[in-house]
Each structure stands twice: as C-alpha cells, then as structure tokens.
Amino acid sequence: MNTTHPPQPHSPAIQVQDAVKTFRTRSETVRAVQGVSLEIPRGGVVALLGPNGAGKTTLLDMVLGMSEPTSGAVSVCGERPRAAVAHGKVGAVQQVGGLLADLSVRETVTMIASLYPDPLPVDEALERAGAASFARRKVAKCSGGQQQRVRFALALLPHPELLVLDEPTAGMDVQSRTEFWDAMRAETERGLTVVFATHYLQEAEDIAERIVLMDAGRVTFDGSVDELRSTSRHHTVSFVWPGGEPLPEFAGATVSRRSESRVHLRTEDADALARELLTRTPASALEISRGGLDEAFAALIHRDDAAA
Amino acid sequence: MSLTYTAHDVRRNLRSIPNLVFVALLPAVLFILFGAVQGWSDARLPGGNVSAYVMVSMAVYGAVTATTAISAGAAVERLQGWGRQLALTPMGTGGYAATKVAVALLIAVLPVVIVFLVGAFTNASMDDLWRWALAAVLCVVVSVVFAFYGLAAGLIFRSDTAVGAASGALVVFAFFGNVFMPLSGGMLTVARFTPMYGIVGIARYPVTEGEVATMGGAPQTDSLLWLVVNAVAWAAVFGIIALLAARSSTGRR
C-alpha cells in the first residue's frame, strides 16, 4: 500500500493536486471542493480563510484522511494522509465534538496518549496547551475555550510535524483567543507547520504568514496578507466638507461613510477624484488610503457570485 | 489494544452509579425474590437445584444489561465525535471494537460475580465445582450476543436516551426469553425463538442439562444444538443490523 510513496524528509507538509470532493445527497450532488491545488511547505503558519460552506472543512478532512477525494490526490509529509496520521505526523484540533463529557481533562489526555507508541508526556502536553490549571476538571464542566485547549493538548501528543486546526477559536472570547494563539505561537517556534481554517479575517491577518482564501469550493487567492490587501483596487478618499454646503455627485465614486466633518468616498480612480475635489470643490484636508483587507476579502468572495 | 485506555474506560463506566445499580444490584435482588426465598428453590434439576437455575438466569440478565449498555454507549460516543478523535490515533476500528468488547465483558463479570456470591451464600447449589465455574464463564461469554444488539441500537438511535430505552427493552426480551418466570404451553413455544432464550439456556446448561423447568405440565428438554443455533442466529441478526446501520451512518458524510 505504501510502496508508491516512501516518506521523504523534505516533502512539503501538505500537497494537494486537483482535489475534487462531491457528496451525493438524496436530492442533489454537492460539489464541496471543486479542483483545489495547493502546496504548503514545512514551517510557518497558513490561514485557510473563507465563508461558511466554502469547503474549508472538507479540504481539511481530506488532509486528515477522514475522507478520500473524489478525484485528485492529497499527500501529507510525503505520505498518504491516513499513513501520515497513523505515523503520528499530524495533530488536529477539530471543529466539533471529539471529547467525552464524563472524563476529566487529564483522563482524556492520558487515554489518547496511551494509543501512541511514543507520546509526549501527559503533563507536558497539558502544560504546553495551557490546560494544566484545570486538568482535574470534568470535560463537561469546561468552557468552550478550555475544551479547545484540551483538543490542542491531544493534538500535541504524537509529536506532530503538522498541526491542522479547524476554526480553533470559534466561540471563544477575546482573552481565550489571545491565549490560545500565544500557546500556538510557541509551537510554531519549535518548527511546527500550522494550518488553520477560520472565517475571522482579523485572525488570519494577525496570525498567518500566508493566506489561502477559499470560496465555493475553489481557491480564489493564495499569498501573503499584503498581497491580499493589494488585490483591492478600491481606495478611500476622505476630506473635510464645509457644513451647509450640499455634496455633489462624483463620477465613479460612492459615499462609504460620512461623519460630522469628514466625508469618505470609495473609488477605483483616486487620482482623478482627488484632482477634481481639490480644484473644483471646497473640499480640504484630503487623505487617500488603500482599501482595507475587508474590502479585498469581500471582493474575492463575491466575484464568483457575480459571475454565476 | 491499549491497557491504559481499556482500564480508563472500565473505570469511567464503573463511575456511572445509576447504570451500575441496574447492572449489578437489580439482578441480585431479582434472584433473592424469585429464587432464594421461594418454596421451589430446593427442587432438583439434573446438575443442581432450582435456586441455582434462577441464579444463573439473573446473572445472564445482569450481564446482557452490561454488554448492551457498553456497546450502545460505544456507538453513541463514536457518532458524537470521539470517533473522529480516535481516527487521528493509530487505533483503528478493529482496535476500538476489541477494546469495547473487553470493557463490556469486564463489566459483565461484575453482576455475574455478585449474583453468584449471593447464590452461594444462600441456597443455590450445584453438584460439582466445575458446574459453578462453567456456568459463571458461560454467563459472561453468551452476553456477547447482546453487545451486537446494543451496537445496533446505538447506531440507529444515536442518543443516550434512546439507548436507555433499548436497555429497558431487555426486560421484555428476558420475560419472553424464559429468563425470569418459567413459561409453559404456547408461550414457551414462542419463547424458543426469542433472542434471550438461546443464551440463557446455554448458561443454565450446567444446571439443567437441557431440562426445561416448567410450572407443572409435561417435562420438556432443549437440545444444546437448538440453544446454540438460537444464540448464533440472533447474534447474526443483531450483527447485520448493526453493520447496515454503521454503513448508513458513514455514508451520510
């Protein structure tokens, strides 16, 4: 079974080639992933960003060997996903379920640890995941954020080379979210590759070096945060407008926000708009800024909707 | 198979007190009510007395309650996401099944030991020590049939309450399987085809040697072959239902 793919030490953490995954329900065929190719080298933090239903979880399921692609190929650390998982190369924090409510945190970690040939010591896993302080608590009595840290501890047990996190901070408050990512950062400094799915743009921007944006089963963008920002062709031009004076229409620009003194216009041609404002209107204190990440994100996601 | 994992799982099951009362204490109480204190308890059977017959019956009832609860719980815990967690470990489905069977049998030992102890200290008697030992071992072994039943129930109903209902239905199986009250006439004829009849008959064989205890009426016997066929057939039926239910649950996604 493994003859085709001997594990190679320098193979990428994740390699996906033309992966397609379709689900057949009674009434329709859902094409959750529609031809994704992706290579994630070792080391570093990659965010898989996209709205709900974009196919993020389906893609990660294939990476974890939970499901097979309908067509195409997925390899993890140079092996088939199932083999990589069985060899303890992959740790995962999954979106839902996964814990037994009537066990204590320590019991949970001890039980799962006993299934690996050479696990991280239980205390160390609890410590590194930030779960040591509530190790004696029953899982049922843990908050959502604490349960995520238990899952994180479980993910660390096999000494993984790759950590896959599916919306790891969903439902966490700001503080637990910060603490969670602090703990995660310590792991990436050890050389772990981290791939996490999220629909929080901010989180992707703060944590990841590279963003892979998915929408409707396809990768619509793959690059750094700066590159994502620069895909936005929109600029915002803001200026002070004298009170009482009616604001005329400007060709190719829309009002995005208006406060008491400042007007914010959104446009694709900032130069022309600025020239017009400064030469023919009473506008003053003009500022031009490039469109935010939010805009770039929205533009990339809705492009497909418009085309369809 | 991991010893640590199995030991933790056994301990976890022993912690749920309400289940334990049903599994371990109820059969002992039933034995005292229907066996030890009854006037017929000293009546003779080929390998022992009627009290021993009732003792084995109740031990089997306790053991199947245990295996049903454990296996149904296993199906539910897998469907609720623990299965995904385990899928990330080197333990495969086979290892998981083996672990759960071990846990179920270990828990099933508990009611058998308790009921047999109560029996030994009251008036249950068997002619030889090997009959005691064989009967006790058989009680545990035959309860595996109901591990398949529990598995099927868990996979179909997918919730703890429905699994509770499946455990409750064991009382009905026990009654119609000639486990509690000795049945006779038409009831007994029907009973021979129900799922608990075969296994309880096998476990009682060291006491009865096939003789069917009835409340009056002509004496009857069961062949060991028939009892085994019944047990194997029902194991197959429950097993196939569980397999089909497992297929449809994974096919969904």
TrEMBL record, chain A:
Q: Carries keyword Transcription regulation?
A: no
Q: How does it sit in the membrane?
A: Peripheral membrane protein
**Gene3D superfamilies registered for this protein in UniProt:** P-loop containing nucleotide triphosphate hydrolases (3.40.50.300)
Recorded hits in SUPFAM superfamilies, A to Z, give: P-loop containing nucleoside triphosphate hydrolases
Where's it found, cell-wise? Cell membrane
Show the coiled coil region(s): none
A GO biological-process term = response to antibiotic
Whether 4Fe-4S counts among this entry's keywords is: no
InterPro entries documented for this protein? AAA+_ATPase (IPR003593), ABC_transporter-like_ATP-bd (IPR003439), ABC_transporter-like_CS (IPR017871), ABC_transporter_ATP-binding (IPR050763), P-loop_NTPase (IPR027417)
Q: Chief location of this protein?
A: membrane
Q: Under the GO molecular function aspect, what terms does this record hold? A: ATP binding; ATP hydrolysis activity
Q: Name one GO cellular component term.
A: plasma membrane
Q: Where is the ABC transporter domain?
A: 14-241
Q: Which UniProt keyword terms apply here?
A: Antibiotic resistance, ATP-binding, Nucleotide-binding, Transport
- This protein is called ABC transporter ATP-binding protein
To which species is this protein native? Kocuria tytonis
UniProtKB/TrEMBL annotation, chain B:
* Parts forming coiled coils: none
Q: Has the keyword Membrane been applied to this entry?
A: yes
The UniProt keywords, alphabetically, are:
Membrane, Transmembrane, Transmembrane helix
Q: Does the keyword Membrane apply?
A: yes
Transmembrane ranges, per UniProt, are 20-40, 52-76, 97-120, 132-157, 169-191, 224-246
**Protein name per the record:** ABC transporter permease
Species per Swiss-Prot/TrEMBL record: Kocuria tytonis
